[in-house]
Amino acid sequence: MAGGLRLTTAVTIRPCEERDLEGFERLGGSHHAEYCREQFARGSEELTILVAVDHDGVPVGKLHLDFDERADRQEAVLVAAAVAREARSRGIGTQLVLRAEELALERGCRAIVLGVEDFNPRARRLYERLGYAAFAVHDFRYAGAPVPNPGVWMRKELVLTEPQVWEALEAIPDPEIPVVSLVDLGVIRSVDVSNGHVRIEFTPTFLGCPALEFMKRAIEEKVPGAEVQVIQDDSWSTDKITPAGREKLRAAGFAPPAPRLVQLQSQVHRCPYCGSTETRLENIFGPTPCRSLRYCESCRQPFEQFKTI
After folding, report:
1. For the whole model, what pTM was predicted?
2. Please, what are the domains in the chain?
């Protein structure tokens, strides 16, 4: 315990909730807490407050990301960062800034801009360590600030990494079978990140796929600024569905397609519910061209069987 506040090195970074505002006086006094309430009221589309809470849910740090002020430049402005005195030098500020960068990228921002006063060299060293560079001097004026209050504006270009792009694509559900993602389905052919430019290639499951434009728009929205190229060479096959994707299909009551080599050697179709091979074809035409309807003689359940393509 320090000053009545129990601290841990592990914190949770999440968007601020109204109940968190009660604890913001610890981070800057009553006037600052009132300012935070006013900013919170703007709504998360304009400004998001990220808060670091300990395992008891007590705020030990926070920052604000203003998405409105420099929206025309596709930049987020980071302001009002603070960490409780008792929690400093534990990496909480770093965690907050890194999560802010992730959020800014998710919102389509190309950079983060922030101001730091000369009287806070510790904060400036943190930002420099995280890749921020000064680009202009400024006299920061606000209620309670010293006069004059010199400092600098700092900026960092935000660049997605390849793993971050794959993670974003993993969150896009297949439009016809949302239990699997586009990555699970195997339609993402490649991801290339070079000099800040993201290029994504994907292949539809079949030529003339009606969901093609929907998938392309979903990728562009999830990875803003990415070049999305559709490869229509009919190279996709059911063998490209990932092992995780097959398990998700089975858990949702779909019989995943057998590997092509196995299907050529055997006509066995296994029930996704009980695992029995005692199944029969009910209708070769299912809800979509890639699925047929079968019936399990053992558990007496109908199910959809993915055709091996």
Report:
1. 0.63
2. 12-157 (3.40.630.30), 162-236 (3.30.300.130), 246-306 (no CATH)
